[in-house]
Structure formats: C-alpha cells, structure tokens
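Entry for the shared binder. Reason: the reviewer on the internal report wants the predicted structure included alongside the sequence.
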Amino acid sequence: KLLVVLGHTKCGAMMGATQTMLAAQQAAQGAAAPGKSALEKLLAGLGPVTEQAQYELNANGGSATAEEIAAHVVKVNVFAGMERLLAYSEPIREKVNSGEVQLHGAVYD
C-alpha cells in the first residue's frame, strides 16, 4: 500500500502564501501593512513552510525572489504534509512503522 503527499509546480496557493509572508516581513520592518482579506488570513497559515523555504534558499546569504521561494515552498510543503501525517495520525504512523504502508512525497509539473 502506498500513501502519496502530492504537490504541483506553479501552485497559486504557494505563491499567495509566499507573498503574504513577504508582506508581513515588510510590515514588521515598518512598511504600511494593507488590511488582510479572508484569503490572506488562510494563506498566513502556510507561514511556517514559506519561512522555511525562504530560510533554506537564503541560508548562505542569498536573496531569493518571491518566485524562487514559492517554487521551493511546494517541496517544503510536501515534506511538512508527510511530517504532519506521521505526527497526528496514529493509524498511519503505525502502518508506516510496521511496513504495511509506504509514505512518499512527490511534486508534479
């Protein structure tokens, strides 16, 4: 049995989450923050994966663009989804640990 956490390239949600994170960072530096829409509030929930992607891309002093971050967020989110499944689903965790189920991540173009 196989369980796949699947992401896709050029994901609009990941770009929106990246833009929301970057706007929040600018606001924290004193830039005027626009009012948040309901969609922006939902996208803010992806903040941890967007921040992780930005950190990974900029770890060596780089300055990744929003497009580069959003592309990497797709991969980071797949791994985060796999981690959440194992952390919060005892039945899945048990089946993966016993070898009854394989858990894989993938990204399609």
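Summary line for the report: The chain has a mean pLDDT of 90.
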